Amino acid sequence: MPTPIIIIAGHPPRRRALMAAVQQAGFDARACPVDGVRRALEQAEFAVALVVCLDDAGRETAAWAVDEGRVQFGVPVFIHAAVRGDQAHMADLIALDADAFIEEPIDASAVANTLGEVIGGVDDSAAVLRRPRPDSDKTRVASQRAAEATSSEGDPAERGRRAGETTDPLPARGPWHRTLDRLEARMHREHEDAVVRADESADGIDLSSLGVDGIPPVDSQLEDEAAASGVRLRLSSLADQRAPAEVTAAAVTVDATHVFDATERLASGSADGTGGSPGTRDAKVFAQHLAGGQPPTMTETGDIARTDAVSLLWRLAVERYTGSVTFSRDGAPGEKRAWLVDGALVHAEGDAPSDRLVEGLVIRGRLAGAHARHARALRRPTLEAWLCSLVEVGYLKSREAEPALAEHLCRVVDATVAWRHGEWALGHGERSEEELDRPLPVVHVLLEGCRWRLPVAVLRERLGPETAAPCWAAALEPFPRRAPAERGAWHPHGVEETELMRWDGRRSLRELAAGSGVDPRRLFALVYVGRLTGALVVLPEPRRGFDEGAIDLDLLRIRERLALARAGDHRGLLGLSEEPTPEDVARAHAATRALISDAELEPSVRDRLNPEITELRAAIDAAAHELSGGPASLWPSPSTSRSCE
User: pTM of the full predicted structure?
Assistant: First the structure.
């Protein structure tokens, strides 16, 4: 019998210890990129499990990978991540709803125990080995495989020891929630002790001081079986009970006095009259609090209440989907249809009056009502050609044609962002006869839709409490990257670089929204979509551990240069020799200016020394002007040109 294979989805160089632990447990380990899960499972004929590395994948992609492994291929899925003590991280783990958890740093014995509890040993896992099959038969084989994995005798909640009989085609989830229960119980006990110790401290509680540095070993026998039987909850029962994604202020309010009592809330009855079990409601709230919608599984149809338009459209963009997507609901407007090529919008139609080109232009004031009848008569095979004909007859300005087209398609599709009920359906490979020559990025549609279609209160609540702080994901890496091009593929059009730099995790949403000239609706939409794309991370509260050394360096440099400027030492200010050439001056000016640019200075320094920085920049410009003899003209005057001849 071939050795069972466990697929590890993550960055291979960072997962050597995990692979070694899996191999030590007797399995064959194969690593693949997170976005290559489907291909890896298809190619590995004897795969028995999937491990998704959360730190490499991010929440959105990890959730997709969990669904891919469990639903499409019928294998148990493990989440591998470092444990943090904050509530948002716990919510992240609960929302993923996997089979079990493997903690970072890797402990080989703990990995072996966790694998053994879920899929048994190497010999036990032979029963669920996937047989070779043609690629065209994926759905049938996945169903057979899921049935094989659940055909043994035993308790479904103890599927790691014996996969019990069940009518559920998906593997049961027992160890996952028990592990989280025990971690939360431990956090709760230590939290109470810390509160007593911190009564005299103005800084409150530091979770890192509570010793939440790992998950307790997973044991089939809980310390208190009687208590465990009353609090255990299978998260699989929540999958089909998710409430609509509509979020209200009351729905996402977390009672700070019970922040560690998730297990007790999951076991108790509804106490607030909202209906449904608290377990269902809390899981929904956690997921909405983080992202506002559930990542879609790439099926043919779906429910908007479970997978909203924002999540679906972004997943289609990530997958570089080509085909149509139709959104429908009862009432008017009732249907919208969009066509995408390689994940970008190329055409859209709808049944609302404003979804027709001429009517939409009239409603938005771009086309005069007196011209509407003739404009309809000028219809062309494509929207682009039609708009060009309106420009030719003088009904539109030439510079208005392209933005009018983008605005029209965007409004047709982004209306679905606010839909809270209905259905969507995919038409793989379907093409439109009216495709744009230059497709519209989906991220632009999402930004416009979230900004203008969602109530600002809903946007704010989806981002979490007012203390939440947006931060570029790249800034959390071991070697933070600050160049705009390195922030990922997401760079919103029309947003100033100085505004983007303020999203450094050190300013809360309240602070950012209170800034001069800031539109809160626009800010919340940008941050929400930025987090959806993975470019931004929303921290529960601003980072406090900033680099004091970097601040001291900035202060020293500014003071030294400012002293030279006030002393009138132009050469010293620019770091030049006695007789610099104009080229030397230009280069020194650019380098000195860059040293005190907003991109180089620490945020707190920019705020504290804004007048001094402004004075220093003006002095640098004046010094360069003085030493170069004034600005050089790129275009010599006619008299100078004649004299040169």
Answer: 0.46
